[in-house]
Design a protein that fits this description.
mainly alpha, 19 helices, about 450 residues, two-stranded antiparallel sheet, globular, Amino acid/polyamine transporter I
Length: about 450
Amino acid sequence: MAQAESSTTARPQPTLGILDAIAIIVGIVIGAGIFRLPSLVAGTAGSEAAVIAVWLAGGAVSLIGALCYAELATAFPSAGGDYHFLTRAYGKSLSFLFAWARVAVITTGSIALLAFVFGDFMSRLVALSPYSTPIYAVAMIVVLTAINVAGIRKGATTQNWLTVLEVTGVAIVIIAGLVFAAPAAAPAASAAPAAAGSAVSWGGIGLAMVFVLLTYGGWNEAAYISAEVKGPRRNIARALIWSILIITALYLLANLAMLRGLGLEAMAKSQAVAADLLERAWGPTGAVLISVLVAVSALTSANATIIVGARSNYALGCDWPMLAFLGRWNERTGTPTTALLVQSGVALALVGLGTMTAKGLETMVEFTAPVFWFFFTLAGASLIVLRVREPDAPRLFRVPLYPVLPLVFCACTAYLLYSSLAYTGWGARIGVAVLAVGGVLLAVNLRYRSLALKRS
């Protein structure tokens, strides 16, 4: 019976509806970023019109990317997501490096980053000790992993409720700025000529887009649940498109609320823009409320990332005999249990690394960014490669204006790859070094596979 419950022959089953998929996507994307990064965007964009324009442009770029992923996910549905696309387009060697990067850098680094955000804001509410932040971070990873090991339905139900709370939090920020906070008419009026007269440079707009697209990041994770969504060839595309439209609307309204309640100048100078807005609207109670909102948002994104991240670990185990222990699917719970546990262990180790550097959040951002954007660019290009290599594959959804839109998407991700290397510190170098270690593991795996074939 144990073998039946956790085996290498069991496969993912379609158990998620379109609302589950939308909840997972929205939950991943709307994280702590929308509560923290709008001030950086306001400081670099140069004017209120430019602020709104770059958030709208971020939604447009994300929608283009979602259209590309909708074609890939509906033509080649798999629990491996990007890993599966990269394997078909470029071969198993490169996709192994990608899967290694997710295990050791991208997904686990994102979980650790979100755990630090959760710990930071929970510590503002109830400080446990000088190490309060990492204590909360560790607790979050352990509890969410346990929930998801218990079963996909429990993980999805938890995600649905957390996403409701997260979206409610963004809605509270919107209401506070548009309804309750007194308009920042005087500061906005005095700042407008300066903003208009200052150079709204392409460099400033480009840097603003880096922050914006970081805030929009995560929607591509929908590819990892494509094999578990009912009617994937129809519902994955719908879930991606509807999710991006919902997120873009929320982000635009949130920024309009912040601009109205604080004004461009105060918004740009703020170190905690959402907290300042709620404090302006409701006093000290608002500051407490925003801490709760950001903690819930981090929790929501982390749970969704844990759900989808384990799926690529599972796909890696299915393809490489040396890592077959990752490719066990528990039929009873509908989860890749071993992959979840390994992912949790690596994320906890990264929390330890961030704690030792005393810059947990910044270290994790630097650690993950270059590796993420490198493979994201390759995944976008895989759409073009697979159109050429597998022209007869059934594609119930096709990207409009092909190949223009895929090329625009790849150009944007390539620019973000450059930015993540040019504007970050030593954490980025460590992330690249860990990816290089994956090259060594690839050589060992190829040798292991060669010896196994000879014995057989």
